[in-house]
Structures are given as structure tokens and as C-alpha cells.
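Lecture notes, unit on protein representations.

Consider one protein chain, 151 amino acids long.
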Amino acid sequence: MSSSTPEEVIVTASLTSDVARVARGMREALALVDEVLDLDHETWESTLHVGDIEFYTSKNGPYPNNQMRISVRPSMGVAALHYADHDDPEVSDAYSYTPNPSIERVHLIFSGETGRLFPRSAVISISHARAALVEWLRTRARPKCIEWRSE
């Protein structure tokens, strides 16, 4: 966990809409989470990086350790999350998890680059996804308000 306060949080996002955004402070970060959860992720996922600085992707870095990958289908009320933090001593890589996946087949994109989908068991409600993302922003750790599974 970082020693900074939630108001100092900086979130760098790469959205499914091919837009990059930076949110500074909790109010902007929460608005960004709501924006992501309103987007229909048909062909590409969104990624969020949380930290004390903005993160950029280049061959020279920096390479963020704390990332959340998100895919959402607002019309169906569902989302899926993937948490990655190589500094997490318990679980460095995990998917949101529901023990009883919906019978209805939902395709949520994990990687637009490869076409890989989230596992069906990763599909959760948008309200649970929002709660997990808010907790993640506040704690900068894997949210405990939802279940997770490593694969």
C-alpha cells in the first residue's frame, strides 16, 4: 500500500475507445471509473494504472506494476476485471470471480490485440466491478469486496 492519501492518486488509463486519459485526485479518478464502466468494450479492453505519477508506455518505461484490465457490456449489466501487481505478496495476477457463471454466454474481451476473452467465471455485475475499482483506488491493493481467482 502506498503512503500517499487517496486525494493524491493518479490514474492513467487507456480506454477501449482508443483514448488515453489521466485522472488526478479521487474525484477525477471516480469519474474516470464511471466513464470506463459506461463504455461498451466490444473489441478492446480498457486498462487503468494507479500510482503517484502518470505512467507512459514506451520501450524505456516506466512499467507500472499496479494495473486493472477491464471489459464491460453495459447493455447486459456485466463486467470483468483482471488485477496485476507484481509487488503483491499474495496474488500478483488474478481475475474477478463468480462461482456460478451465468448460463447466458457473455463474451468480454481480455485482449483486443490477440482476441483473447475473459473466462466466463470472471463475469460480475457492473455494480460489483465499480465497488472493486473504488476499493482499488483507495487502497492500491487487490480489492477484497469481490472474489478473485488466479489462472
